[in-house]
Specification:
140 residues; 36% strand; single chain; 5-stranded antiparallel sheet; elongated; Thiol Ester Dehydrase, Chain A; 5 strands; alpha+beta
Length: 140
């Protein structure tokens, strides 16, 4: 509830939200069905190994979906919408691996309602992806 109340007043620069998650085989199947992306690097361990990965890798689009959850539910939350998301991948996230998604508000203009949220996704000490989201926060 606190995140919803804070969103009503806009973003607070420096405000950080962290979500922990683990992508399951069932989520991978559902995303493949939804997207129509059946690239074997996401499901076939032997194929993934030939391509240089130790196991099947999580869909980048599924990680974007996790970002959508963070933006829509926590930072800025229900009073905000994202205008753009830019994400650069630096390594894979493997299916079943524990991961964290961190969003930090780095800019906000109360006069325009526009803000920028810095994003990073990691697992253990590894950074999987970094980027930013531009959001618009409406008055409550």
């Amino acid at each position: 509830m606190a995140a919803v109340l804070e969103a009503a007043a806009g973003l607070q620069v420096g405000e950080t939200v962290v979500h922990f998650f683990r992508i399951t085989d069932a989520e991978m199947q559902a995303f493949g069905q939804l997207s129509g992306d059946w690239n074997p690097v996401h499901a076939d361990a032997s194929f993934a190994a030939v391509k240089g990965y130790r196991a099947p890798i999580v869909y980048g689009g599924l990680l974007i979906a996790k970002i959508s959850g963070l933006l829509g539910m926590s930072l800025p939350g229900r009073n905000g919408v994202w205008c753009s998301v830019r994400l650069e991948f630096s390594g894979p996230l493997y299916v079943g691996e524990e991961a964290r998604l961190r969003g930090t508000a780095v800019q906000f203009s109360s006069s325009t309602g526009l803000g920028v949220i810095q994003l990073d996704i990691g697992s253990g000490e590894r950074i999987v992806a970094r980027g930013k989201a531009e959001v618009r926060v409406a008055a409550a």
